Structures are given as structure tokens and as C-alpha cells.
């Protein structure tokens, strides 16, 4: 399954999204050895690529990536501690769709990727979530994750251009007997198979709805001078919940 971006028009997608290659980390203290990270060779999407990634009519709700823009408070750096205490109350769809609040995190500016393994303190690079712990063949049935950038800095959503089930089939001869994992993304890239990374800009007040158990992904604040606080929820939002 290709990435399915429901952005309304290709023009708006190309304004926000870039694409580049990935590499494996080696002997980098901040990363797991073998983590899949962006190579940094970002370029704008061309029209053909934008059309390829744009969601087709009838794409299942749970596999869509949608952008959200809400009148959320944009915080100053000195207010970070306060926003952590009140982030759960900022959920924008409380009157329409229930969701589980996962928490929030503040990342410094200019971070190539943001997600850390709490057990080691090292960054994971592109990875897949496992909130619903779904097996191969059912990853598209999981809940989507909502991420809102509460500011004050810019943030990026990174995602691989191939889903974990396609990746999994290519690295496991008997995929029905295993559960997809971040290690499969790393094994796939180690084997020299093709993977590109999309980078979608999220200004303060912007967010995304995305199937993070289906798509390899991460966050980034690369190039930003200010920290970014992101809040996260998990739920089942119908297509069209996003406003961009």
C-alpha cells in the first residue's frame, strides 16, 4: 500500500512536503546502531510524486494521513511546563470523536529526529508504533494517532514511502507467523531495498492524523531555533476530520 495523503489538492501537498533518501546510523552516540534516519538530501515533491502519494477515493479511513489546523494556543518557551499540565484539555475533536490522550513531549530545536527509546536514551529513527499490537495483515485496522504541534517552534512529520506490511513481506519468508517491528524496517534498508522519506512541515497550531502502526515514521525539528511541544492522542477518526 502506498502512502495515502488526504491533503485536498496537490498544490497544498507540494507546499508542505519534501522527499529524500535514508541511511543507516553507525557509531553515532545519539542513535541506535542501525537506525534508519533521513540522509538530509531533501527536495520538493514533483507533480508526479504528489499525485502518486495523494489518497484515492475510497481509501480506508484508518490508513489516511490528514493534516489538521486548529486555533490552539501557541506557547512561548518559558511556558513549556504549564502546557504539559494542560495539554490533554487541548484536544480539538472532543465534541465529535473520543480519543485516548497519550501525553506530550518537548523537543529542542534542530533535532534531526525526535523519538527516543526510554530504555537506552538513544534515538530510534524511522520506526513503527505498537499501541494496538496488531499482527501482519491487520496493521491497517489500527487506530490512528493525532499529533498537534503546540509550538513555539516548527516541527516536521517524517514517514517512509512504504508501509510496514510491504516491508515485512520482503524480509520474512513466512510473514503470517510474526508481528511487524521496527527491526524489520532496519533489516529492509540493510538489504539495500528502496525506501524514501517524506518530510511534512507542521507550523505551530498544525497537526496530523496518521496510521503510525502502519507507516515507518518519526518527528523532526531540524533547522528550527525554538523547541516544539507535541501532544498526542490515539483514536478512530473518520475520513475528513482533518481540516487542510
Topology at a glance:
Blueprint: E1 5-6, H1 10-16, E2 17-24, E3 31-38, E4 43-44, H2 47-53, E5 65-69, H3 80-86, E6 99-107, E7 123-125, E8 144-152, E9 155-160, H4 164-171, H5 182-190, E10 196-202, E11 206-210, E12 217-220, E13 228-235
Parallel strand pairs: 1-5, 3-7
Antiparallel strand pairs: 2-3, 2-4, 2-10, 5-11, 6-13, 8-11, 8-13, 9-10, 9-12
Which key features would you list for this structure?
globular; 5 helices; 244 residues; six-stranded mixed sheet; seven-stranded mixed sheet; 31% strand; alpha+beta
Verbal overview:
The chain has 244 residues and is an alpha+beta fold. It has one domain. Helices cover 16% and strands 31% of the residues. The protein has five helices and 13 strands. The chain has helices spanning 10-16, 47-53, 80-86, 164-171, 182-190, and strands at residues 5-6, 17-24, 31-38, 43-44, 65-69, 99-107, 123-125, 144-152, 155-160, 196-202, 206-210, 217-220, 228-235. The strands form two sheets. Strands 2, 3, 4, 7, 9, 10 and 12 form a seven-stranded mixed sheet that branches. Strand 2 and strand 3 form a beta hairpin. Helix 4 packs across helix 5 (182-190). It starts with a strand and ends in a 9-residue tail after the last strand. The mean pLDDT is 89.
Task: Give a short summary of the structure.
The chain has 244 residues and is an alpha+beta fold.
Overall tally of domains: 1
CA-to-CA gap between the ends?
A: 23 Å
Class per helix and strand makeup: alpha+beta
The number of strands is 13
Order of helices and strands: EHEEEHEHEEEEHHEEEE
Please state the average pLDDT score: 89
Report on the biggest sheet: 7 strands, mixed
Q: What shape does the CA trace take?
A: globular
Strand-residue fraction? 25-35%
Determine Rg (CA atoms, Å). Answer: 17 Å
Unreliable runs = none
Helix content: 10-25%
Q: Given the structure, what is the number of helices?
A: 5
Amino acid at each position: 500500500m502506498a502512502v495515502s495523503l488526504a491533503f485536498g489538492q496537490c498544490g497544498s501537498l507540494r507546499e508542505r512536503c519534501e522527499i529524500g533518501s535514508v541511511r543507516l546510523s553507525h557509531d553515532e552516540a545519539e542513535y541506535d546502531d542501525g537506525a534508519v534516519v533521513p540522509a538530509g538530501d531533501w527536495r520538493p515533491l514533483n507533480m508526479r510524486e504528489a499525485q502518486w502519494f495523494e489518497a484515492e477515493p475510497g481509501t480506508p479511513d484508518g490508513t489516511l494521513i490528514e493534516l489538521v489546523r486548529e486555533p490552539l494556543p501557541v506557547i512561548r518557551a518559558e511556558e513549556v511546563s504549564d502546557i504539559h499540565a494542560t495539554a490533554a484539555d487541548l484536544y480539538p475533536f472532543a465534541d465529535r470523536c473520543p480519543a485516548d490522550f497519550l501525553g506530550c513531549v518537548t523537543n529542542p530545536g534542530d533535532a534531526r529526529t525526535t523519538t527516543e527509546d526510554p530504555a537506552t536514551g538513544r534515538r530510534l529513527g524511522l520506526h513503527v508504533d505498537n499501541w494496538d499490537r496488531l499482527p501482519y495483515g491487520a496493521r491497517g485496522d489500527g487506530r490512528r494517532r493525532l499529533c498537534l504541534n503546540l509550538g513555539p517552534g516548527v516541527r516536521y512529520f517524517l514517514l517512509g514511502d512504504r508501509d510496514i506490511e510491504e516491508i515485512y513481506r520482503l524480509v520474512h519468508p513466512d510473514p503470517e507467523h510474526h508481528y511487524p517491528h521496527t527491526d524489520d524496517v532496519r533489516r529492509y534498508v540493510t538489504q539495500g531495498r528502496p525506501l524514501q522519506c517524506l518530510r511534512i512541515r507542521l507550523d505551530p497550531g498544525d497537526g496530523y492524523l496518521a496510521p503510525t502502526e502502519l507507516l515507518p515514521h518519526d518527528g523532526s525539528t531540524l533547522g528550527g531555533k525554538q523547541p516544539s511541544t507535541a501532544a498526542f492522542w490515539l483514536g478512530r477518526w473518520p475520513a475528513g476530520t482533518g481540516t487542510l
